[in-house]
Here is the input.
Amino acid sequence: MNKPLLLSALALVVAACAATSNLSVGDPVPYPDGYRQWAHVRSMLIEKGHPLYDSFGGMHHIYANDAACEGLERGDGAYDDGAVFVFDLLHADSAGGAVTEGARKVLGVMHRDADAFASTGGWGFAGFGGDTRDNVVKDPAQGCYQCHTGRESAGYVFSTWRK
Ligand code: HEC
Here is the structure.
């Protein structure tokens, strides 16, 4: 292989590595930079009277990056490392017969890395408070993963693919 070819082959390998998640056990869940440009999966409004109102009341939008979308569309419950889902929870403001988005409450994240997050189903769970990058979830195993185990056969993901 001549030198320019070898260099471009190396560049491809480096780019491929950068595209996948490469975390280790104990690493924090990365903040999902750019998630507002990802695919929108679904939205839901949780109002007073819902059993989860205290924790998840408000309006949330779910986003998926490319790897997460591929897993969702396949529907086999398998997700590649680097797949990320975001649960963007905002206050819901009701006035004049309309419900609109308020300030952000928390940005929930599921980041796929089968080895790094093996103890919570291969997903790293985090919640960044308000508009900060501070993870406010102290016990992701109890506070997040436990409820998501109800969806173990779907790779711990509640959302499903729709066109
Ligand atoms: C009591 C059950 C419960 C708990 C606890 C819970 N979740 Fe979820 N989670 C859900 C449900 C139900 C959905 C689907 C919501 C929808 O359909 O809009 C969901 C969706 C999500 C999604 C989008 C991907 C998916 O599965 O559809 C993310 C990201 C997420 N949750 C993160 C978290 C994080 C982070 C925590 C802990 C702070 C957490 N969840 C705790 C029930 C739970």
The helical segments are 3-19, 53-56, 66-74, 140-148. The chain has a mean pLDDT of 92. Residues 42, 44, 52, 62, 85-87, 108-110, 125-127, 137, 143-144, 147-148, 157-159 surround heme C (CB under 6 Å). Residues 23-154 form a domain with the Chalcone isomerase fold (CATH 3.50.70.20).
